[in-house]
Amino acid sequence: MSPEIAVDPSAKEPPYEQLRAQIADQARSGRLPVGHKLPTVRGFAEELGLAANTVAKAYRALESDGVIETRGRHGTFIAAAGDAARRQAAAAAQTYAQHVRRLGLDRDAALAVAQDALRAAYGTPEG
From CA 14, how far away is CA 78, in angstroms rounded? Predict the structure, then answer.
């Protein structure tokens, strides 16, 4: 069973990003449960009317983000994202901490920069 995906060719985001975001959202919400087998790149591309390279690019990004995992000839599946996402976030945070320290920012300045980036990414919370 394929995920329900709608790619809008007139959208600002490129098709691979639309595909990546929709699969990630459906995996996060549980609509695509852990272990759900995704269609092959070629089959999904045909189904969506996209180039195979477009679907492959979305799959590579999802795998890099820990949302999906490829099990060789067995196919591509929704991964148990919580652990992988936390590990990747911790690695990114460690890299950030090392980088801002090399730049000479103190702890408060580094936190302020990170909070600004999170506000930009998630939007300003109400309240």
Answer: 22
pTM of the model: 0.66
Residue 72, pLDDT score? 87
Q: Which residues neighbour 68 within 8 Å (Cβ) at sequence distance 6 or greater?
A: 23, 27, 38, 59, 62, 76, 77, 78, 79
Domains of the chain by start residue, with CATH: 15-79 (1.10.10.10), 82-122 (no CATH)
Distance CA 70, CA 38 (A): 10
Contacts within 8 Å (CB) and 24+ apart, 5-14? 5/48, 7/48, 7/49, 7/50
Q: What is the pLDDT of residues 29-81, one digit of tens each?
A: 889 998 899 999 999 999 999 999 999 999 999 998 889 998 888 999 998 86
Helix 52-64 and helix 41-48, axial crossing angle in degrees, nearest 10: 120
Sheet holding 37-38, edge to edge: 37-38, 76-78, 68-70
CB-based contact 62:23 (threshold 8 Å): yes
- What are the tens digits of pLDDT across the range 107-126? 999 999 999 999 998 887 65
